[in-house]
Amino acid sequence: MSDHTHSSPPRRVFIDKQSPKAFQALVQTAEAVRTTAAEAGLDRTTAELINIRVSQLNGCAYCLDIHTRAALRAGESPQRLGTLSAWRDTALFTPVERAALALAESTTEPADATAQASAYEAARQVLSEDQISAAIWVAITINAFNRVSIMSKHPVSPRPGA
After folding, report:
1. What is the CA 25 to chain-centroid distance, rounded?
2. Which DSSP letter does residue 87 get?
3. pLDDT confidence of residue 74
4. All residues at 6 or more sequence positions from 76 whose CB lies less than 8 Å from its CB, including other chains
C-alpha cells in the first residue's frame, strides 16, 4: 500500500484571500447587482432563489449554505427551498420566479440555445427588460462566486442548531 493514499489532498489556494483586490471588485459587483435587482423590482427572495438554483447546478456547497440562510432570513419557506431543484414540477413558484429561474439556468448553461430561447420567451411574458437584465446579472454574479468557492474548496462547517 502506498503512503500517498493516506495523505490529505493538497490544500487549495483561497483565491479570495490570495487576491483580495480582485475579490473586492467581485463583491462590489455583487452589491451593484443587488441594487440593480431591487431597483428593477426583483425582490430579495427571487434573487436568493436564483443564487441557490445556480449554486445547485454548479455544485457549490459553500454558496448553497450562505444563500439558503439568506433566503430563510428574507422570508423564504423551507418547503420551497426543498423543492427548488425541481421547481418546474411544482406549483409553488410564481410566474416571475419561474421566468427568473429559467433565465438563471440558461445563463449558467448557455450552450443550450433552445433552453435559452425558451427562457427569454417566457421571461418577456412576465418580466420587464430591467428585471430580465437584473435576473441575468444575479446569475452571472453567483456563477462567479461559485467558481471562487469551488476552486478554493471553501469549507462548509457545521453550525450549532442548524
Report:
1. 18
2. G
3. 96
4. 45, 48, 49
